[in-house]
Write a structure and sequence with these properties.
Elements lengths: L2 H4 L3 H4 L6 E5 L7 E7 L5 H9 L16 E7 L2 E7 L11 H12 L4 E7 L3 H14 L3 E6 L1 H6 L6 H8 L3 E3 L8 H12 L15 H17 L6 H10 L2 H8 L5 H5 L10
The structure holds guanosine-5'-triphosphate (GTP) and magnesium ion (MG).
Guanosine-5'-triphosphate (GTP) binds next to helix 3 and helix 6.
Length: 269
């Protein structure tokens, strides 16, 4: 970790965004926890830096964020803790970086998850969006790199996307700060219930599968009473996900929830 990266930029503290105070690394109490998730290279750390005033490493190659970084900001008098996660293509991933992100989204229980997507690769990015919407009640989709999209003459009907996904969809160009005030407003509305999220969920039609899920959820709740997202875990067990089966067998599974509450510092790749 380089000490210069821990410093806060004095200029960044002076926010041009109304009602925003960037806190940098701040270990006080928070009203809300916000996770930044998304595919690699979509601009998560750029959004993180904009909101916290920190200098988490960014660059044009995937895999820069190697562990989760924490920072803070105040918006409309509420204190937010922001967690920048490594990029992940799916929640079923097995690499270490992707496990960090997956476990935090699944078991860290942030108050809201911002899913940062690359507008120029929307279809590919929607795979992870839909997976995250399966396991969280509150999310905001940050439709980033809209400057690049418009350079390629790509037009996205964000209102339709918002209706289909059931969560706010906010176009941004994080590198130059466009859309960040609207993103903050979206987060504010979601955490306060002003925007009632109805995340898109895939309907399971098979009675047999529904019964199997219910049985497993009952057992998981008994053994791991504090475990969130037991339905997702049950589905993975039915699929035969070896990483989860092994973690249950060797007893490390119960540490997952606890581990998510541990504090981590900004680490630069
Ligand atoms: N043109 C443009 N470039 C952007 C925008 N947002 C971020 N970038 C650039 O995209 C690259 C990747 O940004 P990062 O913030 O590092 O992406 P990330 O999602 O944190 O990447 P990982 O940590 O590897 O998952 C950097 O070169 C950014 O400057 C944007 O809105 N428009
Ligand atoms: Mg990053």
């Amino acid at each position: 970790m380089k000490s210069k990266n821990r410093k806060q930029c004095a200029e960044c503290k002076k926010s041009s965004t109304d009602h925003l105070t960037r806190l940098g690394i701040h270990s006080g109490k928070y009203d809300f926890t916000v996770a930044l998730a998304g595919n690699p290279n979509t601009g998560k750390s750029t959004v993180f830096n904009r909101l916290t005033g920190l200098h988490q490493h960014t660059g044009n190659w995937p895999g820069k964020t190697v562990t989760r970084a924490e920072g803070g900001f105040i918006y409309q008098e509420k204190r937010y803790k922001l967690i920048d996660l490594p990029g992940t293509y799916s929640l079923l991933s097995n690499t270490r970086d992707e496990e960090i992100a997956r476990n935090y989204i699944l078991f860290g229980q942030p108050d809201v998850t911002i899913i940062v997507v690359d507008s120029t690769r929307l279809e590919r990015n929607l795979n992870l969006v839909l997976q995250i919407l399966e396991i969280t009640e509150k999310a905001v989709v940050c439709l980033n790199l809209v400057d690049e999209a418009s350079r390629h003459q790509l037009k996205i009907d964000e209102k339709k996307l918002m209706r289909d996904l059931g969560v706010p969809v906010i176009p941004t160009s994080a590198r130059n700060g466009d859309g960040i005030p609207k993103l903050l407003q979206g987060i504010h509305e979601v955490v306060h219930g002003i925007y009632p999220c109805k995340p898109h969920r895939i309907r399971i039609e098979s009675e047999q599968l529904k019964n199997a899920i219910d049985t497993l959820v009952g057992k998981l709740d008994e053994i791991y009473p504090d475990l969130p997202n037991t339905r997702w875990v049950a589905l993975r067990l039915i699929e035969g996900d070896q990483s989860i089966i092994q973690a249950i067998k060797n007893g490390t599974f119960k540490n997952l929830v606890f581990d998510q509450t541990k504090k981590e510092e900004v680490i630069v790749a």
